[in-house]
Structures are given as structure tokens and as C-alpha cells.
Amino acid sequence: MSDSVRILVVDDSSVSRAKLRLAVVALGHQAVEARDGSEALQLLGQHPYDAILLDIVMPGLDGFDVLEAMRRDDILAEIPVIVVSALDDDMSSVVRAIELGATDFLPKDFDPVILRARLETSIRKRRLRERERAYLDQVEELNRAAQIILDDEFSPDRMNVDDVAARDDALGTLARVLARMADEIYDREVALRRQVITLKGILMVIALGVIWGVVPTLSHIAADLDATPVGLAIWVNLLAGLMCLAVALSRKRLSLPGRGSLRFLLAWAVLGGVFQNVTIYWIAGHVEATTLALVSALEGFMVFALAAMFGVEKATLRRLVGLVVGLVGVVTVLLSRGSLASSTEVHWVALALLVPFLFAVEDLGLSTVERDELDPVNSVGFMMLFSVPMMMPLALATDGFLQVGPTFGQTELVVVLMGAASASATIILVLLIAMAGAVFAAQSAYAVTIAGIVWSMLILGESMSVTAWSAVGIMFLGLYLVEPEAGEETIQIRMPFKRSPRVSG
């Protein structure tokens, strides 16, 4: 028996207590004395005990009162109690004590051998019950873990069978098998979710490229129609905002932004609604739509550069080489097209670099700010509308208002198309960043570039040489070098659970 056995001796007689204490100590156990029932219950509430030697007849709270109190407490009821009585004169009291939960009895004039046998028997039975209860509890844990595996909302963290798996018996083997099965199911589910998210992400990237890729072409057409950049941005944002809020209203998701979301939406309106759109529409009047689409490809590289600068992504030599290769590809395309033939053209192409930079800042901002209070369609709608009054002073100062209507002509058609493209593309961007992160979403810049080139060829009749197309291939090589290395998550899997530590064995 363990040396840590702790016995509580309860007797109002100091002589009897001393006799019992010495006998218990002689057996190699610890003995604590209590003079009456009240002191015994107080000590039981302070420290754990392996057994109690309890006198029945005591002043105040007697042995029966102590047994009654212990029976009402689930923890104390598990402690074996050996009542001490004068066997010949008090047999009825012993019977009553056993009915109240006592496990055995000991005569006042006891033999140390009898005391040893009854103490060890009582403590051994208690420890056997504890082991049986622990075993049954662990069996129940395995049953619960098995049911979790069968549930649709499976989670290794919810299984919590590590303690059971540490056993070296059949139960431990079963727990290790279940834990390994849980990890395998987790791996399959993560892989499946990654495939689904990757496929959805690719489709969203393509959709974003096709929709936003037409904006440079439409902006160029608007510039040819003498639409001022600020006036065009006001009408496009107003129309896009109203479209988004109408959709949100039809889906019953329209809600006013809270204080935290309001600050975010106002900042986003300044960056995305004002600076981005005005810059694009302004530059589109001075460079070819194809050139603007090609420069937009730098968004992906700028996102990686900014992410590495601020510690969001790890900067490596491979990524640095990728950035350089991508930049070489863009410059090669521009040179092959004669876009850098004069200082004026160089000036406008340099200004066009603001477009991918502003989009890169927007991507990172959207990936780091909580937007749970608003639906994506709702948030884009309010952002667009908030940007409209911000541009009014600039339109007044530059006489940049754009007259539309009352008849529906070319200008009105371009505004409607640009409003629809701006609204839908921004919504897709928000959803894509929320699902896959800014780094993955930035790859849409390449889809925008390809789509922009195709739109400009189809609508404006612009063209690209074989050399230019080869340079586009160099740009995609740069993208391959810049993207996350093996072992890093390209897609941020939004799992409802995390992996539990693997159990060896």
C-alpha cells in the first residue's frame, strides 16, 4: 500500500485517539486526530483522506451525524469509514452505522492485526472502485470520441482521448486507433476543403479578371467622350453603390454600419472609391488601355513586396528574383509596344504605377480589418456612396462635373457598364480576400491583365506583338517565383477546428 495513506482518527477520548493514532503510525500511515464530529467534518473539507476511524458515541455531532453529512457529499461518501465501538454493548449502533454508509467496524479493544487487515481491505476496495470508475469514464470518452467521428461536425480537438491513449492496455490501443483515424479524417477533410476553396478561388480570380479587365477599356472610351475623371468617378460610384444596396435590400441584408465599420468604410472610400477610380480614369485618357492593363499586373508583385515589408509574408531570395523577373516582363512589354518611346509616355506610365500600388494597399487593408458587422454587398454599397460626397469639392474646384442624360447615349452606356463592373468586381474582391487572403487575391491582377488585353483588342482594336506576348510569359514566370514556397499555405483554409496533437504508438 502507498506510503501516502492518510487516516483521520475521530474520537472524543484522548486515550482512545492516542491508541488509534499510534497503531496507525505503526502500520506506516499518516494519522490526523479530530476530537469530535464538528472538527472531523472541518478537517474533511480541508484535506483528502484515504480512510476514517470513527467513534460513534461523542458529544455534539456524534458518529451518526458525521456519516449523515458524508452521505450527502458525493466526494466524502467515497471515503471508507470504519466505526469504532464496544462490540458487545453497541451492536445495534454498528448496524445503523453500516446502513448509513460505514464500510466496517472495529472494537474498542482491537488487535493491531485486525486493524491492519480492515484498513487495508477498506482502502483497497476504495482504490479498486476508483480504478473501475476511471476505466468506465475512459470507455465513455472513447464512445463519445467514436460518435464524434460519425458526426458531420467532426473535430479532433473535441475527442480529447490523449489520457486514454497513454494506457498500455487494449483500451489504450483502441484510443490510439481512434486518434489516428481522427487525424486521417481531418487530413482528408482539410484536403477536400482546400481543393474546393482553391477551385472557387480560381473561378473568382477569373471572374474578377474578366469583369475588372474591361474597366481600362471603358475608361479609355469615356476619356474619348470627354468625360472628366472626377465626374466619371462620381457617377460610376453612385450607380455602383445604389446597385449594391438594392441587391442587399432584395436579400434582406441591408443594414447601417456600426461605429467601427463606419471608420473602416470611410477610409476604404478614400482609398478605393476616390483615389483608385479617379487615378484610373485620369490615366486612361493618356495611355492605351492595353498598357494600363499590363501595368496593373504589378499589383501581385506589390502585394508581396508590401506584405514582406510589414511582416505579413516572409521575404526570400526567390521572391526577390521573382519580383525582378516580373518587372522585367512588364518593362519588356511596354518597350515592345513603344509605350516608353518619349519622355511624356514614360511620365504617364510611371504615374500608371499608382494604380497597382493603390490596389495592393487595398488588398492588404481588406485582409487585416474585421468586417463581420456588414454583408460584403452591403459594405461595398456604403463605401461607394460615401466616396461620392468626398469627390464633390474636387469636382467643384476643377469644374469636373459630368453631364449625363436625359437621353441614353454612349456616355450613359459607359457609365452604367462601369458602375456594374465596379460594383461586381469589388464584391468579388472582398469575398475572395475573406476566403483566400490578400496574397492569393492579388493573383487576380494577372487575370485582369490578360482580360484587359483581350477587351482592348476586341473593343478598341489594339494589338500586341509576339515579343509582347512572350514578355507576358516572363511576367507569369515571375509570379511563379514570388508565390509562397512549398509548405506554406497559399489558401487560408477557414476550418471550424484545428488539428489535435498526434498520438504516438
From TrEMBL:
It comes from the Bacteria. Gene3D superfamilies: 3.40.50.2300. The modification 4-aspartylphosphate is found at D55. PROSITE patterns: RESPONSE_REGULATORY. Keywords: Membrane, Phosphoprotein, Transmembrane, Transmembrane helix. The chain crosses the membrane at residues 202-223, 229-250, 262-283, 289-308, 320-340, 346-365, 377-398, 413-433, 440-460, 466-482. The keyword Lipid metabolism does not apply. Residues 6-123 form the Response regulatory domain. It holds the Pfam family Response_reg. This is Response regulator. It comes from Albidovulum salinarum. The lineage of its organism: Bacteria, Pseudomonadati, Pseudomonadota, Alphaproteobacteria, Rhodobacterales.
